[in-house]
Amino acid sequence: MAFERVSISKKVQGWCGWSFLLEIIDSCRSSFERGLVTTLFETGCRVSELLMLRKDNFLFDQHPELIVVDGAPVLKKYEKVDEIPAPKRKSGKKWITKPVERYRTFPIKKSEPLVEPMLEWLDRVKGGKLFPQLDKVKNKRHKVLHIIRKIGSRIKRERIPYTQVPPNKLWPHWFRDQRARQLTWDYGFAPIDLAGFFNWEMPQLGVIPHYTKPDWRELAKKMGVDIRDEMRKLRSYK
């Protein structure tokens, strides 16, 4: 079955709000579906990245108000290794690239409405990958898209908020877009903060050296959780 590709930039105009996300959760029929939807949103991972996540990537001992996702893979990163002549191109050359392994560490605030159903799924996972059920599926991204659209088809709305797209056309990357919008809406994340959360390269900001991106503790502070206060508290008990 072929699926129409939906463009984020052309179709989505705003943050849908927690109420619509909770409608999606209510439309799920299993803890697996709820786990898939909530981890897609809360981590902001692409499908291929999400399916590489493991239970031990989720740390619960850094702060009582936080879950810290440590070592989440970042795909679609490449570096130039060579260039070859390409007379038909305007530049006259073509870059030869190779994939680069990147990872990111970021906080999730436990008080967010989608965290509880996400934890319900994490509790069911005994270890290893979060979604081993999909390991043997040949086209995993296609399968996840099919699951997401099946969930969307149960929602009794004409349109996804701030789009002209019906819920039965819901797609996985929409959750990543909405996570970025929610972080901006709720916590006032600036582009540099989003670059730190998603490990994005943002050419419009110029070249961002890796060491200048905010780390998870700075992002947590943006969320209203000062990890330094908790660290002082922990030291006071020693």
Features:
39% helix; two-stranded antiparallel sheet; alpha+beta; globular; three-stranded antiparallel sheet; single chain; disordered C terminus; 238 residues; hpI Integrase, Chain A
What's the topology here?
Layout: H1 8-11, H2 18-26, H3 31-43, H4 47-50, E1 58-59, E2 66-74, E3 78-85, E4 93-99, E5 102-109, H5 115-124, H6 140-152, H7 173-187, H8 191-198, H9 216-222, H10 227-236
Helix pairs in contact: 3-5, 3-7
Low-confidence stretches: 234-238
The CATH architecture: Orthogonal Bundle
Count of individual helical segments: 10
For this structure, the CATH topology is: hpI Integrase, Chain A
Shape: globular
Topology, number of strands:
5
Helix/strand/pairing category: alpha+beta
Output the strand order for the largest sheet.
1-2-5
Distance between the termini: 60 Å
